[in-house]
Amino acid sequence: MLQELKKRVYDANMELFRKGLVIYTFGNVSGIDRNRGILAIKPSGLHYSALSVENMVLVDLEGKIVEGDLNPSSDTKTHIVLYREFTEIGGVAHTHSRNATAWAQARRPLPCFGTTHADYFYGEVPVTEAISDERIARDYEEETGMTIVSRFNNLDYRTMKAVLVASHGPFVWGKDPSEAVYLSVMLEEIARIGSITVMLNPEADGIQRSLLDKHYMRKHGKKSYYGQVPRQ
Q1: Are 55 and 6 in contact, with CB atoms under 8 Å apart?
Q2: Do the beta carbons of residue 154 and residue 165 sit within 8 Å?
């Protein structure tokens, strides 16, 4: 089972690279085996051309290496915080993709301007507060995770599966590593469209609530009907 987890995490990391959301050693994807409390994650500082199933690193939820000769991603503690606090997720992706990172660096939430956005994220993608000097000095990566969790005090991580970390970049999650990567690709495209929207009309309003509800719920609601669903 853990070998299969490593394979899925490797495939997800390589998909980030193929989709152009990362370059050189940027970014990382992880996945978790909830029954064992073990996650697999990309090793730190390794170029994507050097990645393999075997060099994915296994760590427990305390950050202890369970298997692997390489150091895990420097963002591992952030991933661990998300798995601890968002108990229904099974995969996390972190990129420095161009457009989503630009919104994070601008410290601006990404408004839901239209239905393309509404198909994947239920409302504006939030941005965190800027991390304080004290939190950076204390334990930067763990505190980054806690900054994300704090931002979700009044948000549902199950319907908003992404966040922009101020001055840093996006973190995205899903039921497994593959969904986390898929939503990262969607976030990047939506961020690009959002940037163009703001350039064309700096005063653009967000989508009307009824249209947001319709598009999100027809894909993700209890009575969803998008795609090849069974006929009644």
Answers
A1: no
A2: no
| CB neighbour list of residue 197: distance below 8 Å, 6 or more residues apart | 113, 114, 204
Closest by CA position to 30, among listed 12, 54, 48: 12
CA 208 to chain centre: 26
Q: CA-to-CA distance for 119 and 135, rounded, in angstroms? A: 35
Q: Which of 150, 135, 159, 146 is nearest to 216 (CA)?
A: 159
Residue of 33, 119, 140, 213 marked catalytic: 119
Give me the catalytic one of 24, 156, 225, 226: 226
216 is catalytic: no
Given pLDDT bands bounded at 50, 70 and 90, which one contains residue 1?
confident
Which is nearest to 128 in space by CA: 76, 174, 168, 181?
A: 168
Q: What is the mean pLDDT of residues 184-206?
A: 97
Active site includes 226?
yes
Going from the N-terminus, what domains does the chain have, and what CATH number goes with each?
2-220 (3.40.225.10)
Calpha distance 68→172 (Å, rounded): 25
